Amino acid sequence: MTLFKTDGARARWSMPLLALGPSWAIVLFCYLGTVILTFRISLTSSGMIPNGDYVGLAQYRKLLGSSRWETSFGNMLTFGAFFLAGALLVGTALAVALDRGVRGEAVFRTIFLYPQALSFIVTGLVWQWLMNPALGIQAAVQGWGWTGFSFDWPYDRGMAIYAVVLAGVWQASGVVMVLMLAGLRGIDRDIWRAARVDGISTWRTYAFLVLPQLGGMLATSVVLLSVGVIKVYDLVVALTGGGPGTASDVPAKFIMDYLFGRQNIALASAASIALLVTVLAVFVPFHYAAALRRRAREGAR
Amino acid sequence: MTRSALLQRIALYAFLLTAAAIFGLPLYVMVATSLKSMPELRETGIFALPRALDPSAWRMAWTGACTGLTCGGISPGFWNSVKIVVPSVGLTVLAGALNGYAMTFWKPPLSGLLLGLMVLGAFLPHQIFLYPLVQWLSAIGIYQTLPAIIVIHCIFGIPLMTLLFRGYYSGLPRQLFLAAQIDGAGFWRIFLCIMLPLAAPVTVVAVILQSTAIWNDFLLGLVFAGRENLPMTVQLNNIVNTVTGERDYTVDMAATVLTALVPLAIFLLSGRWFVRGITAGAVKG
User: Fold this and answer.
1) Alpha-carbon radius of gyration of chain B
2) Contacting residues of A for B263, CB less than 8 Å apart
3) Is residue A264 part of a domain?
4) Residue A7 pLDDT grade (very low, low, confident, very high; cuts 50, 70, 90)
5) With contacts defined as CB-CB under 8 Å, which chain A residues touch B101?
6) What's the CATH architecture for B75-284?
7) Are B218 and A120 inside 8 Å of each other by CB?
8) Which residues in chain B have Cβ-Cβ distances shorter than 8 Å to A115?
9) In a domain? residue A35
10) B219 and A259 in contact by Cβ < 8 A?
11) What is the pLDDT of residue B283?
């Protein structure tokens, strides 16, 4: 090894390497190692426990032919699109409103941000209760005389995933608000004076001059929310249980059900690998593009 | 103020107050429901203020509600969560500080690669890694015990903590470290006497971030804690979603409020520190 050419280098790095040892173990065994083992299981016909009966890509064919997986994956995309759009829109609108210099800003911020402190289980259960058809918002509004009103999304096959979207947007908009507000506060105030001199309206100043400068905060928000999209599990379990039937199932829940409920670990492992490949297929080009742009900017300087 | 500017102000406050009402509504309904009885709830609906502050649903949720087979309420879950959170937070924060320090100032070979893999792992769904971890913990005989869930929280918590501390340490002047080295202080001495005390602010952020995250965890507790140590979130979901017979929504909501109380208290008491935690985690990620 050329890394440790001299005794001096060995002495210098022995302690830091020892300190980082547990983290190396986590990365090598618990992350990389488990993925390799999971991939191996996905090539077998294992049921409740792993067996050595290799069946090639049969589990993957089964997965791609499974209508439940198709629903789960589709739901993740639907949830992702509406959740991202909703949280970004609401969060940005709240940030812009708070940036106008309002009284009681701290109170508003607290109210918009508190859902972020809650567990997904709590959020899911509260929204399940609000959308309870017999006693929730639907019953209250119908009681006020608007008898045709319906708001029972968790119990409606077509709407169940949007119930998850609604609860998710409620919980996550506060973070976008915080990030965007920090971005707005970082912008040079002279832009406002210049815009006023030129007679540009507040609305147009935001749309064309201020918000385009918040690209960094927007990217951060997108990354943060996207991590939530691929991990979405607890919220679905608490709010809809994946139902009615499997109408609001998501990949993370599909994997859990086949791993522990249906005891088909080979299919669950194939689903895990499929999810991993999907995430990497999105993440790696994104990461490269960001790195290239950074290098281009540094080169231009 | 001109007429149009006044109208703009009114529209602005109308928007903010409506938004605040919508964001606050779930919390209000949750607390109001928990303070009613079922007959009162049926009669007055979910929006009405409770007639009296009736704590019976809270008492039932704390000591009598059925979580699966046993009917001891959610209090055992509360104490289980405490037993899980305290050691897990201590270990992950300390390890994160040590890792961040070692990576920033000593830069041993391949630490960039290590950091990259940690970040990637932290952002992937835990489900991908679960089954082999279950097998290994079973093999050493601790699957579904308190040590198992603490180890698992360390595995999935240390990366983010490392990221947080590395971000903080790379903002400190390197001269501090070089001066200590010239004075003859070694790896551990610089960490314990200089860098760990200097990191007090980020340590507060880390503790807040980690205690809320681990308190709110559901998936890992469900799989690894075992029936004796199920955290509060898992017991809450059992109380509400796996009951047989007639559901008592007032008890359900009381149990929900009780579970939300700890992270809400952390959020309200820590204020700006909490915000720094979520933005630090975000910006560095």
Assistant:
1) 24
2) 117-119
3) yes
4) low
5) 19
6) Orthogonal Bundle (1.10)
7) yes
8) 23, 26
9) no
10) no
11) 46
List the 181-240 stretch of B: residues with Cβ below 8 A of A.
186-188, 212, 215-219, 223, 233, 236-237, 240
Mean pLDDT of B70-83: 90
CATH of residue A84: 1.10.3720.10
Beta carbons of A112 and B236 less than 8 Å apart: no
DSSP H stretches of helix in B140-248: 146-169, 174-182, 187-190, 196-198, 200-216, 219-224, 232-241
Please name the residue of chain A whose CA is at the shortest distance from the CA of residue B21.
A111
Number of domains in chain A: 1
A209-237 residues labelled b (16+ CB within 10 A) or e (exposed): ebbeebeebbebbebbbbbbbbbbbbbbb
CB contact under 8 A, B127 and A97: no
Q: What is the ipTM of this complex?
A: 0.92
- Kindly identify which residue of chain A lies nearest to residue B5, measuring between CA atoms: A202
Q: How far apart are CA A91 and CA B258, in angstroms?
A: 28
Ranges of each domain in chain B:
3-54, 75-284
CB spacing of B216 vs A100 below 8 angstroms: no
For the ranges A20-24, A162-166, A199-203, the maximum mean pLDDT occurs at A162-166
Greater confidence (B223 vs A288) lies with: B223
CA–CA gap between residue B4 and residue A155 (Å, rounded): 46
User: If pLDDT is split at 50, 70 and 90, which confidence band does B285 have?
Assistant: very low
The DSSP line for A184-253 is HHTS-THHHHHHHHTT--HHHIIIIIIGGGGHHHHHHHHHHHHHHHHH--HHHHHHTTT-STTTT--HHH
